[in-house]
Amino acid sequence: MRRKPTIRDVAAAAGVSRGTVSRVINGGHWVSPDARVAVEEAIRRTGYTANHAARSLATGRAGSLAFLLTEPQHLLFQDPTFALLLRGAAEALAQRSMTLVLLVAGTPAERANVAHFVRAGHVDGVLLISSHEADPLVDELLEAGVPTVCCGIPLGHESQVLTVSVDEVGSAREMTRYLRNRGYRRIGMIAGPHDTPGGKFRLVGFEEEMGADFDSALVEEGDYSQESGALAMSRLLERSRDIDAVFAASDLMAAGAVATLRKAGLRVPDDVAVAGFDDSGMAATHEPPLTTMRQPWERISEGMVSLLLQLIDGALPEPITLPTTLVVRESA
Amino acid sequence: MRRKPTIRDVAAAAGVSRGTVSRVINGGHWVSPDARVAVEEAIRRTGYTANHAARSLATGRAGSLAFLLTEPQHLLFQDPTFALLLRGAAEALAQRSMTLVLLVAGTPAERANVAHFVRAGHVDGVLLISSHEADPLVDELLEAGVPTVCCGIPLGHESQVLTVSVDEVGSAREMTRYLRNRGYRRIGMIAGPHDTPGGKFRLVGFEEEMGADFDSALVEEGDYSQESGALAMSRLLERSRDIDAVFAASDLMAAGAVATLRKAGLRVPDDVAVAGFDDSGMAATHEPPLTTMRQPWERISEGMVSLLLQLIDGALPEPITLPTTLVVRESA
DNA sequence: CGCATGACTGTGACCGGTCACAGTTTTACC
DNA sequence: GGTAAAACTGTGACCGGTCACAGTCATGCG
Fold first, then answer.
1. Is A285–B227 a contact, with Cβ atoms under 8 angstroms apart?
2. How far is the CA of A269 from the C1' of C13 (A)?
3. Which of A16, B100, B150, B244 has a CA positioned 20 to 30 A from the CA of residue A140?
């Protein structure tokens, strides 16, 4: 069993020097056509693969990005959103032959480890997922000068950190407008946590669009989970039985709301219409299928990766705001 | 802005040589107490962190494991199972200061890339998630001698590859026994794909426990997704309206079955009882809450990591089989 | 007291790439 | 035909660790 071929083996096989092989591998500029084909042929024959560690040591770049989760456990468990983003990011990176390392910063001990790890330069940058307001981890990353891109505008750090987000306010207005156009009048909202962008700005959009008809008694807050949506819906029902539509800031909360309404003997959408947000996998298969705002997950993850890579390359790209699309199904 | 401190800086600060610092870092054997405290103090003062790439280059180990997903897109989207395993594995590794890199092998191109990547030794081993029968990727990994641990026994490779699995047959028998004890007689099964361990062995357990009462007309196959569960349930209903209970091989399929039953005007569990498998996040919040078999996700991921690390260290550990627990809720 | 053993320390080579630089050949143009 | 620029190639140093080995010193024992 021979050891793995190195760049020197390839050089020998191709009859050129290490330098030339290295040049071929990295774009092939200033390499003669002859040398290039010789090297490519030699790489094929030897089955050569570049050693990540060696390259990383020499170039000073890790060749990987971190996917940093700061959410508490139960949200990750339920929310298909994370899985979508994760997969999208992994694929976008694979195309650039970089890798994604998953970091979990749930407990304080984990947060410390993660901070240490990232500062140590083990990754070139961080894809930060959905952090709550004034997350100290964001400060720490910024202070340490670690290139970071957030998904959703981190409250308390607006404009300090690069983001890819959807037009939260506009999306919420669009959904609200849709509900009003369908004739619903007493519309409630199950908002997300007020210290998350999705919680804050979707509520803002809802309030703006409702105008004079806005009734703060018809607003409840959940944590995006199905359970919290169910609870929020019961509180809404307790306060006003004349509610005829509910806009939830996540599909999961919408599903929870539907469950509560059913238990209360109300039909969806005949008695109360329910709209969600995300268009996560379950929205289409839910009973009834959920009307929701689709977030362009693939474009979000691709955007985060591309922004972060630009940032790492020293550019100062603009934040990205993506549009959502209204998906009308049966629940509203 | 100074560059990051290296082991040489620490050595200088502590008044010892590189070798001694290295020894302190790696367990501290054959180091005098004086030297040790001096080095530890110097590490603190300089804020030194070991360079992953350099260590990796010198030792020949990557210091990371791959979490390899081979499932098609829509399953990952829906199934909370993956997220649980992923998170568990990431945390188990973080404790050992190793990292998890996420690899996605969906398309043929991705599979080729992944195979190449893994063979190149960019990771020390692979945590392989839920592969279908005779997956060529398994062959390739085995052939390349890459340490691999599977979650669930990969059909077609039994006993060739190390696994962490639950007692599928026993679990299915337990659930079936429970249903029969509750008095259900015409029990159907929505099995998983027959080329996956969960599809095959849960059906085996069901059949064994049903004995003479087993009726192959009451078995349908899904792909673990909610939609497939709904479809399977309609096929079952078409064939026999006297069915009084259904055992689904996943919670998602159970949820789909419930939806179909509802549409058909049947109540759960009064007309037809429904049981699931996994105890995924949604099982408890589902309407009605699902009776299911809980898989010990944390122990599974922890087991996979520990087995894989042993394998990497040259040991030949035994496969692990873990027990499940029956969780009785309202659906059956 | 001499010598073996064990505890501890320092040194140089090496892991497998990249990069800057120097050297060589080719082309372009006067 | 000479010269400068451009195109291409090879070499040695370096990235930051680990490891084997050689060396020093103290201790124990015959």
1. yes
2. 76
3. B100
Report which residue type is found at B250. Answer: S
Query: What is the DSSP secondary-structure string of B88-115?
Result: HHHHHHHHTT-EEEEEE--SHHHHHHHH
Q: What global pTM score does this model have?
A: 0.90
Complete edge-to-edge strand list for the sheet that includes strand B187-191: B219-221, B187-191, B245-248, B273-275
Q: Give the residue ranges with Cβ < 7 A from strand C.
A: A 3-4, 6-8, 18-19, 22, 25-26, 48-51, 54-55, 57-59; B 15-20, 23, 30-35, 54, 57-58, 60
Q: Which helix (H) or strand (E) is A260 found in, with range?
A: helix A251-263
Q: Is A13 left (phi over 0), alpha (psi -120 to 50) or beta?
A: alpha
Q: Which of residues 138-177 of A touch B (CB under 8 A)?
A: none
Quick one: angle between helices A33-46 and A7-14, nearest 10?
120
% of chain A exceeding 90 in pLDDT: 68
For β-strands A99-104 and B99-104, DSSP reports them as antiparallel
pLDDT tens by residue, B223-236:
988 889 999 999 99
How far: A32 CA to D2 C1' (Å)? 26
Q: What is the pLDDT of residues B158-215, one digit of tens each?
A: 778 899 999 999 999 999 999 999 999 999 999 999 988 899 999 999 999 999 999 9
Interatomic CA distance for residues A324 and B125, integer angstroms: 40
